[in-house]
């Protein structure tokens, strides 16, 4: 997978700020933290002012921001105060939107955003306040591809071993099939060792592998559509691995190590996406203490149907282009042959001797 070494995207903010306890009441999502991210090479976000550091947005506002980044108009029901909030986050150029968003939700609260700040990226931090009904504005009619991480991977048997081996290579670690160990090196020289016979360790590794497969799949789909059609692309990942480690090991060292590994993995994922999409992609990372349905609220559109339909359209477009090319080639070849034949015939006729024994006079009775 391609890596972008000259850009350090601020992706590791996925753990953001610790979220408040979920609110009470049916359908209420509580409060979480979110970070909008783009790179300095291609800006889509405003610089966050000092007085906006503690800003909060409703889930509806976040949904509208995602819709705008994808190149769609926000919901018509968006109130004026929400428009003002979006104006603080997004640059005001409607003709320059990335039309691709990597949306990640991380369950768990083992780190703070301040420990992941990178000066090489542009970010906008905010809190998400609970909302009973988030109006996203994304519908089945939009030219949109949605790729879910849970659609990308089914870990079982030989496929499990293959994906874990790929994951280990990606993170410069090792996977020992015989002992069921996945070893991932850390920046401080230590290593995170996962015992895959434990459910929590396996879920953590599966979440990482699913993230990797989602990135690969997204890049492949993006390349398939390149030069054919240009739909908006939304990549959705719900990472539950850290929460699984917290439930199993509480606040032990393995949770901190897992957090560092996820930070590296998401950073590498964004670097690969940034290079594949030539900078035209933005990120939104949401951190919650408890499992939530933020992603389900923000996204209200079918996913696999979008992908299948777009792939079919792309395939049909490629097939139509091939047929047209063949027909044009045959037409040109036939035309050239006819032209050459006509010229040869004319030349032969012009050089025929005008005597009575020629074919021109074959039907003439000789006296």
UniProtKB/TrEMBL annotation:
Domain of life, source organism:
Eukaryota
Q: Name one GO cellular component term.
A: endomembrane system
The name this protein goes by in its record: DUF7794 domain-containing protein
Nucleotide-binding as UniProt keyword: no
Asked if tRNA processing is a keyword of the record, the answer is: no
Q: Signal peptide position in this chain?
A: 1-20
User: Where is each DUF7794 domain found?
Assistant: 31-288
UniProt keywords (A-Z) are: Membrane, Signal, Transmembrane, Transmembrane helix
- The organism is Digitaria exilis
Q: Where are the transmembrane segments?
A: 330-352
């Amino acid at each position: 997978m391609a890596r972008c070494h000259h850009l350090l995207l601020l992706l590791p903010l996925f753990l953001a700020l610790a979220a408040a306890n979920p609110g009470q009441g049916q359908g209420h999502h509580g409060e979480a933290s979110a970070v909008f991210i783009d790179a300095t090479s291609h800006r889509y976000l405003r610089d966050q002012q000092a007085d906006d550091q503690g800003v909060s947005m409703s889930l509806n506002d976040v949904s509208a921001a995602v819709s705008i980044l994808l190149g769609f108009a926000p919901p018509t029901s968006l109130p004026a105060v929400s428009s003002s909030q979006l104006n603080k986050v997004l640059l005001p150029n409607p003709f320059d939107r990335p039309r691709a968003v990597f949306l990640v939700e991380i369950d768990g609260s083992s780190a703070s955003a301040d420990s992941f700040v990178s000066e090489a990226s542009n970010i906008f931090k905010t809190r998400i306040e609970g909302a009973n009904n988030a109006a996203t504005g994304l519908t089945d009619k939009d030219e949109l591809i949605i790729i879910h991480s849970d659609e990308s991977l089914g870990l079982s048997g030989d496929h499990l071993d293959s994906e874990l081996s790929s994951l280990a290579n990606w993170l410069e670690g090792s996977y020992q099939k015989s002992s069921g160990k996945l070893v991932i090196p850390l920046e401080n020289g230590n290593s995170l060792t996962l015992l895959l016979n434990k459910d929590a360790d396996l879920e953590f590794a599966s979440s990482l592998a699913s993230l990797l497969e989602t990135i690969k799949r997204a890049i492949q789909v993006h390349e398939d559509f390149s030069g054919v059609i240009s739909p908006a692309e939304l990549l959705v990942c719900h990472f539950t691995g850290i929460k699984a480690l917290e439930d199993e090991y509480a606040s032990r060292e393995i949770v901190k190590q897992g957090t560092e590994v996820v930070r590296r993995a998401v950073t590498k994922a964004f670097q690969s996406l940034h290079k594949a999409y030539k900078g035209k992609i933005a990120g939104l990372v949401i951190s919650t203490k408890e499992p939530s349905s933020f992603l389900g609220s923000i996204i209200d559109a079918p996913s696999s149907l979008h992908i299948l339909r777009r792939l079919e359209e792309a395939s049909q477009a490629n097939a139509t282009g091939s047929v047209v090319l063949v027909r044009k080639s045959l037409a040109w070849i036939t035309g050239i042959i006819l032209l050459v034949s006509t010229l040869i015939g004319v030349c032969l006729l012009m050089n025929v001797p005008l005597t009575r024994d020629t074919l021109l006079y074959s039907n003439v009775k000789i006296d």
